[in-house]
Amino acid sequence: MFDPKPILKNLPNLPGVYRMLNAENTPIYVGKAKDLKKRVSSYFNKNINSPRTKMMVSQIAAIETTVTRSEAEALLLENNLIKGLMPRYNVLFRDDKSYPYISLTGDAFPRLAFHRGAQRKGHQYFGPFPSALAVRESIQLLQKVFKLRTCENTVFANRSRPCLQYQIARCTAPCVDLISEESYASDVRHAAMFLLGKTNEVIDALGSEMNKAAEEFEYEHAAILRDRMQALRQVQAKQFVSDFSVSDADVIACAETQGQHCINLVMIRGGRHLGDKSFFPKNSQDAELVETVEAFLTQYYISQNTPPLLVCGAEVERDEFEEVLSEQSGRKIRVLTNAIGDKKVWLKMAQTNAELALQQRLATSANQQARLVALREALHLSEGTERIECFDISHTMGEATVGSCVVFDRGDMQNSEYRRYNITGITPGDDYAAMRDVLTRRYRKVAAGEGKRPDLVFIDGGKGQLGVAIEVMQEVGLDDILLVGIAKGEERKAGLETMIFSDTGEMLNLPTDNLGLHLLQQIRDEAHRFAITGHRAKRAKARITSSLEDIEGVGAKRRKALLMRFGGLDGIKSASIDEIAQVEGISQALAQSIYERLH
To answer: pTM for the full model?
Structure first.
């Protein structure tokens, strides 16, 4: 029986982070505290109301603490430990490490681009956006209004005539000098102002330019500016959020149904409503809504650009988060928990979004569960059958062979557990050898205690592939796992698949309307998609490399320089001899040789 008294007695009244460990020395909960002694002691009071907290406390076998210099530092450490340890009783949100942004590059003629990842000096970034779709819609809008280029630098540097974007009035063709650097810079400046929410300033500036052009009898240019102003006014009327006192804000609502929680995040950037995104945390069963929202604020905003206003639908520790997030951001952050007026309307909209998203997720989950139950019944499996793995092999006439493993578990496809296997050292086109290689690599580790053991394994193939799988499982000592081969139906039509069982050799066809068959098809199709995507990428890379490797005088350094300059093999093929000769390290004679070998 764990006795907390010796530990509690020596805890300091200082900020820090505490970790609750179970009998296996595994962290089951990580928390932060303004006062470690008071916070940790509160878990051992007799009047704990939360069943979830009681369950967690009953499993504590040890407590570890770390003192920090400030509460802000404790929040940072807590966030890092939660993401690293994934404790059982912490509400966990998926770590979306890289949200999408719009970037304006620092080139002489800046490029308008979708950006994800590390931000570089010299470029401007606007966001983050709730989804890639929101970014692309904004880029399309900016193209229509400001006509900025979106092409890669390798394409831009090698144009000799305007592309289709110019012809459909989506670009002013700076690549062939159809617009001056000064005029293009003005368009870039207006686009940046628009993204920052300064739409009225942009319209005023365009109005001044239009009047000046009209006075100088440049009526065609004045008409272009007039059209831009009209387009911006339409966008402003459609998307502008006039009821917020700041141009950047996030609205955060949380819904709960059947023990599951959903956070809906509505993003307002530059005075425009960019859309919303729903988050579904793990381990939120029996948690209070306020705990889920606080977990979201901690895990989401530590690594994101926090807007100056957060409107929350739960009574979170407002002062604490304002202090910590302001310190993190280097500017004042306001957290609003008692929304009134128009902000309350926006919060209600986010609440409705959260409830709808949760209902859809539960409906999907129920459908998947029904499919799993039907599959168990059709294959006479036990109720404990939860984890299903499926394997497929993809190649083109033996070239670039790739194997895939996809996983269905906990009622859904588990994308993070998918694995691809590059297969070498076999006779090209030998699917049996490829399947043997993949299964051996996968299940040798499982047999050694690494990774999770599946309840059922699907093999995309007939008796031959299934026979190989049976041999592999016997060799690694996992021959008690049921294997099912999925043989293609006549003309490979969906619904005509035949299942072959490893234990009896029995063959089974299910009715086309059977829900279990639908789950089988979903898993099999996902394995095929995952394998063929990897195969195509491997094949394309191999073909580019081999095509250039065959040319005498083109080593690794020159290959890299060529691919960087032209963006790929197609770009090199479309380049002239003189353009190829402009690449560093490529002489005129070598350029001639490269050109001739590729044509």
So the answer is: 0.64
